[in-house]
Write a structure and sequence with these properties.
Strand content: under 5%
Helix content: 40-55%
Shape: elongated
Number of helices: 18
Order of helices and strands: HHHHHHHHHHHHHHHHHH
Structural class: mainly alpha
Length: 326
C-alpha cells in the first residue's frame, strides 16, 4: 500500500508528463516486487471505455511497447476509440506512442492530419513525431503540415519537428530547416535541424539519401560565423563523424559532395580556439572521415598551441585515434 496525502492520482505537468504521480509509483512498486500483471492487451476493452482521458492516455503510452496490428482482435476497438478522442492528452499520447502500430491505416493517418493545427502545444509537438512513422498514400499534406510546424510559436514544437522531419526526405523541408540554423535565438533547435539535414544527404550508417539541397544547407551552416562557442551544433556535427560500409560506394550517387570543402570547413572550426571542446573534437572526427592522413596531421600544430592541458589531451587522443584508422 502507498499512502498519498492530497495527491492527484493522475498528476501531469503542463507538458503532459506523468511525473511524480501515484499511478506511476504504484506500477513501479508492483514491477519491483515482481508482481504478475494482466496482459496489457487483455485490458483494452475495459480501459478504453474509461471516462478519464488521462487513464486512456496512460494506457496508450504502455501500448506503445506492444506490437499489434489489424490481425489482432484489439486493433479495431483501440483504433475506434482513438479516432473518437477529443481531449488533447489522449490525442497527444496516441500520436506519440501508437503511430507505428497504425502507420498504414488510412483512417488513422487522416485523423492525425486533421489535428495539424490543433491549439494544444503537445498535440502539435507529437504530430511531427507521428508523421515519421506514417505511410499514407500521399505524404504531401503531411510534409506541408510539418513545414508549418517548423515555424511554430512554441520552441518545443519547432524542436520536435526539426528532429523528425529528415526522415520524410523532402527537399521542401530544407529551406525552413536552414532558416532555423540561421537563427541563434533557436540554438536549442540547431542540433535537431542539422541532424535532419545531414540525414537527408549523408544518412549514416545506411548512406541511402542524396539530397544536394540539404548538403548545401549543411555546408552553409558549417561555414557560418557564430557568437556562441557552442555553435555550430556539436551534436549535429556528430552525425558526420562516422562512416558506414557503403560510404565509398555512395560517391557515385552523391557527386555534389566535396570532401575538400567539408575538410576545410571542419578545419576552420577546429582552429577557432574560442570554440567549445566538443565542437572542436567533432571536427577532428569529420576530418578523419572526409580527409586523408595529411589533413589530420595538419591539425597537430594547432593542438600543440592549446593552453588547457585537459583540452589538449582530449584533442590529442581524438587525433591519435583518427590517425590510427589511416
Amino acid at each position: 500500500e502507498i499512502e498519498y496525502e492530497d495527491h492527484n492520482l493522475w498528476l501531469l505537468d503542463e507538458r503532459f508528463n506523468f511525473a511524480d504521480n501515484a499511478t506511476n509509483d504504484a506500477f513501479l512498486q508492483l514491477k519491483n516486487d515482481v508482481a504478475t500483471l494482466p496482459n496489457i492487451l487483455d485490458c483494452a476493452n475495459a480501459i478504453i471505455a474509461n471516462d478519464s482521458a488521462k487513464v486512456r492516455a496512460y494506457y496508450y503510452s504502455k501500448l506503445g511497447n506492444v506490437f499489434f496490428d489489424e490481425s489482432t482482435a484489439y486493433y479495431a476497438p483501440i483504433k475506434a476509440k482513438i479516432l473518437a478522442e477529443t481531449e488533447a492528452i489522449a490525442i497527444a499520447y496516441a500520436f506519440r506512442y501508437l503511430a507505428s502500430n497504425f502507420r498504414s491505416d488510412a483512417e488513422f493517418c487522416n485523423f492525425v492530419l486533421s489535428h495539424k493545427d490543433n491549439e494544444n502545444v503537445m498535440v502539435r509537438k507529437w504530430f511531427s513525431s507521428a508523421v515519421t512513422y506514417l505511410q499514407p498514400a500521399d505524404k504531401t499534406p503531411f510534409v506541408d503540415a510539418v513545414i508549418e510546424l517548423l515555424g511554430d510559436e512554441d520552441a518545443d514544437v519547432v524542436t520536435e519537428a526539426a528532429l523528425n522531419c529528415g526522415t520524410l526526405e523532402d527537399d521542401r523541408l530544407v529551406e525552413p530547416l536552414a532558416k532555423i540554423l540561421k537563427d541563434e535565438n533557436l540554438a536549442d533547435a540547431h542540433d535537431d535541424a542539422l541532424t535532419s539535414l545531414i540525414r537527408m544527404w549523408y544518412d549514416y550508417p545506411a548512406h541511402d539519401n542524396y539530397s544536394e539541397a540539404a548538403y548545401k544547407a549543411t555546408m552553409d551552416y558549417l561555414k557560418g560565423d557564430y557568437a556562441s562557442a557552442d555553435l555550430p551544433s556539436w551534436l549535429g556535427l556528430s552525425k558526420m563523424a562516422n562512416k558506414g560500409t557503403k560510404f565509398d560506394a555512395r560517391a557515385a550517387e552523391a557527386t555534389y559532395v566535396n570532401n575538400d570543402e567539408i575538410v576545410e570547413a571542419a578545419k576552420n572550426i577546429f582552429e577557432d580556439e574560442a570554440k567549445a571542446r566538443l565542437v572542436r573534437t567533432q571536427c577532428i572526427s569529420i576530418i578523419g572521415v572526409f580527409g586523408d592522413k595529411a589533413d589530420l596531421e595538419a591539425l597537430q600544430a594547432t593542438i600543440d598551441k592549446v593552453e588547457s592541458a585537459s583540452d589538449k589531451s582530449s584533442y590529442q587522443s581524438k587525433l591519435d585515434a583518427e590517425l590510427a584508422k589511416k
